[in-house]
Amino acid sequence: MSSDPNSVFDLTNREYKAGFVTDIESETIPPGLSEDVVRLISAKKNEPEWMLEWRLKAYRHWLTMREPTWQNVHYPAIDYQSSVYYAAPKTRKDAPKSLEDVDPKLLETYEKLGIPLRERAKLAGVAVDAVFDSVSVATTFREQLAEVGVIFCSFSEAVRTHPDLVRKYLGSVVPHSDNFFAALNSAVFSDGSFCYIPKGVRCPMELSTYFRINSANTGQFERTLIVAEEGSYVSYLEGCTAPIRDENQLHAAVVELVALDDAEIKYSTVQNWYPGDSQGKGGIYNFVTKRGACRGRNSKISWTQVETGSAITWKYPSCILQGDGSVGEFYSVAVTNNYQQADTGTKMIHIGKNTKSTIVSKGISAGHGQNTYRGMVKILGKADGARNYSQCDSLLIGDKCGAHTFPYIEVNNSTAQMEHEASTSKIGEDQIFYFQQRGISAEEAVNMIVNGFCKVVFKELPMEFAVEAQKLLGVSLEGSVG
Amino acid sequence: MAQPLLEVQNLHANVGGHEILRGIDLTVSPGEVHALMGPNGSGKSTLAHVLAGRPGYTVTEGRVLYRGRDLLAMPPEERAREGVFLAFQYPVEIPGVSNVYFLKAAVNAVRKHRGLTEYDAMEFLALVKEKAKLVEIDEDLVKRPVNEGFSGGEKKRNEIFQMALLDPQLAILDETDSGLDIDALRIVAGGVNQQRSPERSMIVVTHYQRLLNYIVPDFLHVLVDGRIVRSGGKDLALELEEKGYAWLEKEPPAAVGAR
Predict the structure, then answer these.
(1) Which of A274, B172, B203, B221 is 20 to 30 A from residue A125's alpha carbon, by CA?
(2) pLDDT tens digits for B199-257?
(3) Do A441 and B56 touch (CB under 8 A)?
(4) A3, A440, A451: residue with CB nearest B56
(5) Contact A311, A339 (CB under 8 A)
(6) Does ipTM come in above 0.90?
């Protein structure tokens, strides 16, 4: 019988199930960042002059900025000159025009990830825009979407085919000068997704993007822009994985959402970037800026995220509640195991009257993981009748991890109603033993407790994503108890 | 005689460097109910925990055979699947996990281990309905998170309810009577008595003789300072009630442990 009190919380290795490298010839440019590189990226993508100018403006601004230091994460200095800023899988001719044009090996990769494009698309009715490294390789269900007027394509394609829309909305929510990482993204973004839902249209299927970082030393800088016109609705799913590599990789994405009158955008993320090994070696640095603008009256933006991967997660999907009666929601599960660090949360900026926001954050720390919730709720002077409900819960597994909560609340209108609840709990040895005594293994016990803890967030996810998220959580916490 | 279900032989165990069990011998045959009594700190609960495999206890000497197999070599969940059940003195709360979900996982883990088909939701709910009557447990409690916000009595009833669902060969009841009012005690004891069978053995750990008015044991052992100092029939309980433990504490350890 074991007498070591630490034995239950022994840290053992965990397997990263998406950790394979696909051997595809990719076209990359030499490492480093300069105006020439920005020009080169733009040229490779045959971009119009205005796009290049926008990139250069961002690049020049970025040069004047410094990396933020306020976040509660620690990592060695990033050498921005050693990263590669463009990598595209080589294709037989130009860009693939349909699934048949896509390199079979690429499709194999998706199979391994459990997202066979064809089947997934057919069975689940999901249109997938798959971003492999930097170029969008396949977009399915385009025609069906086009029938109802929904535009869903890669960002580069949108720049060419819908320049007016892109110019109108690009940077309108996250300006090129917003923050260090957003500025970097604006200068060098390689691709991403563009989605436009016309007036009164309810998007007939869930739209989905799978991001995956493949090439070594490649930064991934994708950019997503979703515009929902008056009275429209769209649900967008985003999933991410990356292969195992010893060195750290940088990922700095920007997502902008715009919801006009009575429009609703539901944005769900399951992030499973490579978290590094059990000793904290390798893993993705995930510095992401996500923001939605509820511009119209009674518009709604809902963020749901399940963050299980990455060595470092730095992201605060936010809502600017500008339209009267608009609603912002943020549901989050963030897991840090081994040496992972997450500093994540949201900002809800109430500008319009009778605006409402809900924040539910569930942080889970295991191993040496450090999990920080950072959130801001700001009620501006004219936001009469604004309401916020925030709930931040932390769950600790073992005694070497940490949970931190930094809620900022700023109220400038006396009619506002604010509620904040927070809790910290720990999975105790006595709980685990209780499960074991009933025949349930320690691993399964943690799974059940964690899933129970996250239930309220999971129910916000679309069905098939919720199942995936549950499984992912199990994998992520594998080995967190011995 | 049939093979004993449980054989505890010269068991010594430490907690945090303190020797609590100092040579326990106890043999339990199928169908027998053994009561274990003794003053505070005598090692009753420690014995229960060591048998169930709770972490934090170190066995320094002796062995325990369960159906002829080395019980101490099995991880706690395997002991449970093999039919060892511990009704906890202080059942722990598990927020977020519903009782029924927890129990279904437990019952199916045990069934799988025994080579039986796992219950689906419908079959399991039927079983729950049947067993819930046994301990008069409110169906509302079945849906709530495990033990969360349960009263002391409800927690104990939930333990006996779980025992009924898991169908163990060896049930160890660790001070199941503590904190129960007389009505709850009657219900819990009734649930236990209905589960007595020629195949199922029980070890009933208790402080008070009063439980033994409801659950009448076949054998009674008195534990003092980590040793069984006296064993007898149910009459021994009455003697204890009258004289207390003091007279036993002065006596040398009983020559034989169990029988």
Answers:
(1) A274
(2) 999 999 988 888 888 889 999 999 999 999 989 887 887 787 778 777 777 655 554 44
(3) no
(4) A3
(5) yes
(6) yes
